[in-house]
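Anyone else keep sequences and structure tokens together like this?

Example one:
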Amino acid sequence: MSEHVVSLTNLNSGAVIDLFDQELKKVVENIGDPNTNPKAKREITLRVIFAPNEDRNQAAVGIDIKSKLPGHRGSVTAVWFGRKDGKQVAVESDPTPGLFDQGNKLKMVPMGNVGRPEGEQK
């Protein structure tokens, strides 16, 4: 067994470099994703944890690396609800006349008010 001084590049046979490269790939892909905020900061955190033994002549070394990435941006649309063939359905485009059953009363709800009691505005 050859002895060499431990460094970041040779720790655990280079596993730290491989792990960093994997996280860097995630960051690069996230930056290129048009569904994320282009100005949000991305972060890679590397932790090397040493747990020495009682005699202090050896240590178990843990390597933890992770990236912190912004999530995808939200999206807003409008949905119309009505009955078609007796079943409740939802459509995203403005329903054409005759799409829903006769006598169906449609009511468009602004997305900010979804889930609020009727009449209560955001």
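And example two:
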Amino acid sequence: MVEVKIDDLVVRVYTFEGYVVVPIRLTEVYKSLKWKMQERYDGYHGMVRRLYNKNDVHCWEDFMKLKKSIEVEGFDNDFPVLVCKRNGVLEVVDGQHRCSILLFLGIETVECLEVKE
């Protein structure tokens, strides 16, 4: 495992035209948390369900439960953020919501496990 600055991580996010790779701070997940906008979060995941993954189960209530859990109990390093090196940068494969919460809480680094593509 390696400790990584969250601002150095990128994620793939869906758009109406496909996907783009962006830093965590530019994701709808992070922005919805920062601006306390459930509608933004629900709108993004609604689009994901309609266009890309009908089995997407993300919901605001669970996101808020995860946030509360991290606030109270801290980040659980037994479940590290999974990253993959693509185009010279570490891309989050699993953990975008957790990274967004950590950034929101002012935590700048996270334990990551690098996996093969």
